[in-house]
Amino acid sequence: xxxxxxxxxxxxxxxxxxxxxxxxxxxxxxxxxxxxxxxxxxxxxxxxxxxxxxxxxxxxxxxxxxxxxxxxxxxxxxxxxxxxxxxxxxxxxxxxxxxxxxxxxxxxxxxxxxxxxxxxxxxxxxxxxxxxxxxxxxxxxxxxxxxxxxxxxxxxxxxxxxxxxxxxxxxxxxxxxxxxxxxxxxxxxxxxxxxxxxxxxxxxxxxxxxxxxxxxxxxxxxxxxxxxxxxxxxxxxxxxxxxxxxxxxxxxxxxxxxxxxxxxxxxxxxxxxxxxxxxxxxxxxxxxxxxxxxx
Length: 295
What we know:
Layout: E1 5-8, E2 30-38, E3 43-45, E4 49-50, E5 60-65, E6 70-75, E7 83-88, E8 93-96, E9 104-111, E10 116-122, E11 129-135, E12 143-144, E13 152-157, E14 162-167, E15 173-178, E16 184-188, E17 191-198, E18 201-207, E19 213-219, E20 224-230, E21 238-240, E22 246-250, E23 253-257, E24 266-270, E25 279-285, E26 288-293
Antiparallel strand pairs: 1-8, 2-3, 2-4, 2-26, 5-6, 6-7, 7-8, 9-10, 10-11, 11-12, 13-14, 14-15, 15-16, 17-18, 18-19, 19-20, 21-22, 22-23, 23-24, 25-26
């Protein structure tokens, strides 16, 4: 992780793609920002703003809010490999966080309380997938958090020491790793790729015999699991709001499930008039929602 690049720009007004597919298959994807005004009667949404104009017709995916104004993004702007970029929504700047020789990095997450971020890496052999931690100031090359795991797909942090990990195997399994002890605890099988940590709980989806994914809520302290809403066909990505409401995408629509009414599904916004017709990922921070669209 040697080269840094800072670029100013006026931000042009985020599939089942796991990082274990081959590099030649990176699909074109676009990242959009929607500003939402919540009130008791209705929801007002400003026109979506394209954030990935600096990498037009490229791969732009896996957004992750660092703060209200900052977002991690995975892109492949100028090479065969993917790197992590940091977008500043207030200053309208992007900053290249990684450029590791012949290694692709994905799924950047902020590590709680440690001034560090973590990524999934496809190593130089093109097959091994590891979970790495880098310092935010990029002062060193970081470290492999779990050398015994070579099939990491996605992850999210539950605490400064515990991380939930999607493992790529025949059943797609969910484990929780402890970075202090190195221990790995099995949680579930047949899971979807989406992992969310919110309000002290881990949210994930589990594939049912029907083929549909049901969102589950795991309590790390009590080690209990509660079943929540069933997602529609071909949907496994979602977002959890601070109030517990669930967002997910259905083609070009963003749907919402109220926490107190898990069987209610209502349209939050319809973005198809803007040409956004295949939303594959969704993340939020307060009144901001970022979407990935695959045109």
